[in-house]
């Protein structure tokens, strides 16, 4: 394998995090491979990235009902999902095709659904002769994620296979280990805490709601502090500086709270934690899964966040906390009933042990012979 292309997008950090994990796996498999990247939104045109990021943030924070309406419409009306994907494919495909032809990859890996739409357009127009696959980094697939013309659609859990096939019955779907970097592993909790300066005997709750710090993060911190005197919340604010500023006075009042800005130590903090609190279930949820940590989904964000939360709960990997007090109650239950916490942690570890490694999925995809 000489050349590999990763098609991603800077829409938060989740899609790029999946791409980096795939790049690491590629380099383990084929050390001499040349790995190139394309940002789908940049390919689609000047100004598209900032516009789409503004639309996404606005929908999640200000008009979640509109985001939910669009998401549900994709499921309820097959014609709407098909038309939406084809529109994006026509917009993205020709532009993406010129870049793919220039780069000449032997293998294409997509981590962003709009990029996958463009790749499907290329495949249907006989302009994508090399194997191409989509890594669905949300725990719950939705119709914009899955493409029948691609050689492989990779989901993160057996529970995700039926909804993926419901999206596109003819799609080729496989289950893979979470696409996270190798540093995210079960690890040594005590050593991680010692290195990070966290108390060895505390119940550490890592709160991470993506690089943009979406949702009711401040409320989550307050609930965790009120849940039990042994709880130490570590809140990663990412690039949300306003959130970090709001949390600092609370940390001064109760020094158990550890607010952090952007950090490159997410793997260490995840290993050091007892549970991970999040609200979307994308990259953060997958990193928790890889580390064998239970997930508490606190007031999941609209659309894909709620779908991810429900599917993770169905798989025994998460507890969904929708209303005031539920997060604190869930933490108190886990502290009082450690067997329940252990069962969720073991379910995560068992899943990661039973699924094929990222390298297995890459080998399977690379072995596809596609004739145009």
Detailed description of the structure:
- The protein is of the alpha/beta class and 372 residues long.
- It is built from 16 helices and 12 strands.
- It has a 6-stranded parallel beta sheet, sandwiched between helices. A 6-stranded parallel beta sheet has the order 9-8-7-10-11-12, sandwiched between helices.
- It starts with a strand and ends in a 6-residue tail after the last helix.
Average pLDDT level: 92
Identify the CATH class of the largest domain: Alpha Beta
CATH names the topology of the largest domain as: Rossmann fold
Which consecutive residue ranges, at least 5 long each, have pLDDT under 50?
A: none
Order of helices and strands: EHEHHHHEHEEHEHEHEHEHEHEHEHHH
How many strands appear in the DSSP assignment? 12
| Principal-axis shape | globular
- The number of helical segments is 16
Distance between the termini: 19 Å
Specify the structural class: alpha/beta
Order of strands across the widest beta sheet? 2-1-3-4-5-6
Please, how many domains?
Answer: 2
List the helices and strands and how they pair.
Layout: E1 3-8, H1 14-29, E2 34-39, H2 40-44, H3 48-61, H4 64-76, H5 78-103, E3 107-110, H6 113-124, E4 132-135, E5 152-155, H7 161-167, E6 173-175, H8 189-196, E7 203-208, H9 217-227, E8 231-236, H10 241-253, E9 258-260, H11 266-272, E10 275-278, H12 283-290, E11 295-298, H13 304-314, E12 318-321, H14 326-336, H15 338-354, H16 358-366
Parallel strand pairs: 1-2, 1-3, 3-4, 4-5, 5-6, 7-8, 7-10, 8-9, 10-11, 11-12
List the main descriptive attributes of the protein structure presented here.
single chain; 372 residues; alpha/beta; Rossmann fold; 2 domains; six-stranded parallel sheet; 16 helices; globular
